[in-house]
């Protein structure tokens, strides 16, 4: 295992890490309804408190933070881990929010796409056209689970549409380096899909058994779930893998390139920072930690 540096602990289910130019990491604490900045020395500062369940984060072209808010989970603490369980008692729907990092002000941008309510927005990625893709992971009840999809929206609040439907609890989302392929990871099926793009917010439907119209890329063996993902500069897709505890590195052709183990069964997300983007920052959510490690290849420079 690569040497791991623990940067911060005591976080309440951290997710959505974003590496900032000043060397800090901005992330969410889902269980606290909070967005937090972690300095290189581990110092923590509250950026904003949007409430609900802030999940995925991305910096938009206007310098604002865009937040996938899943509306909140229920929580169980067991075996030294904080574990999401079901839906928050005060759940009132999901949303996309815009946050001013300088003031902490929170604006709700979208709660619906037409007559489709956002149930549990999860992960987000901006494209080169100023729009963004995001997954809706949905919510889980005692005997029911939402059927959900992937959305495309404009950062100015003028347009949102559900582009891909149906999917099984889509979670991680990312774009290839050329911006022509969209990658989506499903949690409970533990499948990674690729969608060929024909323009901003437009996909080419592949033929096959998948109702969503994607090309199947990869699924691991064993009892595992997929969470959020990041993309390397060379095009490999790095998917946080729950249960197996680590990062699955998958080529654009669907081959497993590497598996980087961690020490938390709820390993949920990855981003890259540093001058050469070869420092990986990983959220270990069950134990409430942000860690870093040297990465063998640079992460993709994100649009935003």
Automatic annotation (TrEMBL):
GO molecular function terms listed in the Swiss-Prot or TrEMBL record: metal ion binding
SUPFAM superfamilies, per database record: Calcium-dependent phosphotriesterase
The keyword Zinc belongs to this UniProt entry's keyword annotation: yes
Domain SMP-30/Gluconolactonase/LRE-like region: residue ranges: 13-284
Cofactor mode of binding and number, as noted: Binds 1 divalent metal cation per subunit.
Keyword ATP-binding: no
InterPro entries: 6-blade_b-propeller_TolB-like, SGL, SMP-30, SMP-30/CGR1_Lactonase
Residue positions of the active site: 227
Residues that hold a divalent metal cation according to the record: 171, 227
Cofactor: Zn(2+)
Keywords in alphabetical order: Metal-binding, Zinc
UniProt-annotated binding residues for substrate: 122
Protein's name in the database: SMP-30/gluconolactonase/LRE family protein
């Amino acid at each position: 295992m690569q040497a791991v540096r623990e940067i911060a602990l005591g976080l309440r289910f951290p997710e959505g890490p974003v590496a900032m130019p000043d060397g800090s990491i901005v992330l969410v604490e889902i269980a606290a309804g909070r967005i937090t900045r972690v300095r290189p020395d581990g110092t923590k500062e509250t950026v904003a408190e949007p409430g609900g369940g802030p999940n995925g984060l991305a910096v938009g072209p206007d310098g604002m933070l865009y937040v996938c808010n899943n509306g909140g989970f229920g929580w169980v603490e067991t075996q030294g881990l904080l574990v999401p369980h079901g839906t928050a008692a005060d759940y009132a729907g999901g949303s996309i929010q815009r946050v001013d990092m300088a003031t902490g002000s929170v604006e709700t941008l979208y709660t619906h796409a037409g007559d489709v309510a956002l149930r549990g927005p999860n992960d987000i990625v901006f494209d080169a056209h100023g729009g963004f893709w995001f997954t809706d992971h949905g919510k889980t009840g005692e005997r029911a689970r939402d059927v959900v999809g992937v959305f495309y929206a404009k950062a100015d609040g003028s347009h949102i549409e559900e582009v891909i439907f149906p999917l099984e609890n889509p979670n991680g989302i990312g774009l290839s380096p050329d911006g022509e392929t969209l990658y989506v990871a499903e949690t409970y099926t533990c499948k990674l899909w690729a969608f060929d793009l024909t323009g901003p917010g437009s996909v080419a439907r592949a033929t096959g058994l998948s109702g969503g119209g994607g090309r199947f890329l990869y699924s691991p063996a064993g009892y595992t779930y997929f969470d959020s993902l990041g993309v390397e500069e060379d095009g490999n897709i790095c998917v946080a893998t729950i249960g197996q505890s680590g990062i699955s590195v998958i080529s654009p052709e669907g081959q497993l390139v590497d598996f980087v183990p961690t020490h938390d069964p709820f390993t949920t997300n990855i981003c890259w920072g540093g001058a050469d983007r070869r420092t990986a920052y990983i959220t270990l959510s069950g134990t409430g930690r942000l860690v870093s490690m040297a990465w063998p290849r640079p992460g993709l420079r994100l649009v935003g």
